[in-house]
Amino acid sequence: MTDRATSTAMAWFQQQQSAAGWFDLLTVMVDGMVRNAGEAESAPFLRQMGESLAQEWPLPASETVGELEANINHFLTLFKWGVVTFSPTESGIELRHQAIPVSRDPERQMRWCNAFCAILEGMYSRWLLTQGGDVRLAVTRERLFSTADVLFRYN
């Protein structure tokens, strides 16, 4: 893909996923929180917000990993937050979340990605717990492919 095609695609996703006003307010709030409290200190609060969001949007019961993935993607589609793919492993599940909303300001993209990943960790952890997951397990970020493409692990 050319640089122009990549930037055109990124602009389209940003337009679809980050509504002017609401997304800007949220970005300013996250930036302010991280600047005032610090990134590491903000992460537990953001995870808790993700857990609360999962409680507000409970998943229907899922019989299989594929059904669980589809149920979560239903909400991600409603939220315009991208898509997740589940890959069972011997020790747990890998969750690849792609098309994460990205800040329009390149200088804020990494901070926003880190904050949003903390929210997703909490949200995914709560949803998996309500589907019969182990209270001792949590979803954690494993690898950052880009600010819009992140691998999480549940184990």
Task: Write structural notes for this entry.
It is a single chain. The chain has 155 residues and is of the alpha+beta class. The chain has one domain: Alpha-Beta Plaits. It has helices spanning 3-17, 22-37, 39-56, 65-79, 109-130; strands at residues 83-88, 93-98, 139-146, 149-154. The protein has a 4-stranded antiparallel beta sheet with strand order 1-2-4-3. α2 crosses α3 (39-56) and α3 (39-56) crosses α5 (109-130). The model has no long low-confidence stretch (mean pLDDT 90).
State the low-pLDDT regions, or none: none
Q: Kindly state the number of beta strands.
A: 4
Principal-axes geometry comes out as globular
Structural class based on helices, strands and sheet pairing = alpha+beta
Largest sheet: 4 strands, antiparallel
> What CATH architecture label applies?
2-Layer Sandwich
N- and C-termini, Cα separation: 35 Å
Please give the domain count. 1
CATH class: Alpha Beta
Question: Which descriptors would you attach to this protein?
Answer:
155 residues; alpha+beta; Alpha-Beta Plaits; 5 helices; 4 strands; globular
